[in-house]
Amino acid sequence: MEKKDSFENFIRIVRRLRKECPWDRKQTHKSIRHSLIEETYEVIEAINRDNPAELKQELGDILLHIVLHSVIAEEKQAFTIDDVIESISEKMTRRHPHVFGNVSVKNADEVKRNWEHIKLKEGRKSVIDGVPREMPALLRALRIQEKASKVGFDWKRKSNVWKKVVEEINELSDAERSREKKKIKEEFGDILFALVNYSRFIDVNPEFALNGSIDKFSKRFSHIEDELKRRGKSIHKTSLKEMDEIWNLRKKKES
């Protein structure tokens, strides 16, 4: 089979699965939506591991979801995979007038600004529209802030951004003294939002940074468990002081 026919053959495989496999036949757009999110995270993990073989496999899983959703829609006579391809091809052409038209741009930042202008012309009511609520909150905050920044709604100095973080921390302290749960929750959220804002100014992705800290904590905590087992002790009957000592020794070794 020629490579040019491989995509059409894959579509035929998915169509057959929809007819002959009991599991595939019962799926709907909604029933597999969270699986698509999971597969996307697996793609990101393969990229983070710099593993081309794994990335190839995970991209295939994403392609399966794209085709399966398209075949489900085709059965309902809503749209086809050809419609999906035609739509994204037209969108990419329209949103890159500096490539397919006569528009000139100086750099990538100007490309991003033009992109947002074009989306508004397409019917978006707000510059910050289009950021899904299903996104992890840190990434959602980052994307909304980036979109607002592209039209000039942003801090000029990093020092002022940090002052805002400190201000929000102080407001959380005030809220805690008031013991108003709703206010405490609101102020805590404001701190996280302000920290995400600061992350942009120090060129750190907050989602990746937090995941890194979670991984670091998990490794150190697992070391505590392993060390206690080596000592013949149960973590459930160990003092915080001893666990802290093991933690700090591990931390020193890492340094």
Can you give me a brief rundown of this structure?
The protein is 74% helix and 0% strand.
Architecture overview:
- The chain is mainly α.
- The chain has 3 domains: 85 residues, Orthogonal Bundle (Helix Hairpins), CATH 1.10.287.1080; 68 residues, MazG-like (Helix Hairpins), CATH 1.10.287.1080; 47 residues.
- The chain is 74% helix and 0% strand.
- The protein has 12 helices and no strands.
- Helix 8 crosses helix 10.
- It is extended and about 65 Å long.
- The mean pLDDT is 93.
Helices and strands in order:
Blueprint: H1 6-20, H2 22-26, H3 33-48, H4 52-75, H5 81-94, H6 97-100, H7 108-121, H8 137-150, H9 158-178, H10 181-201, H11 206-230, H12 240-254
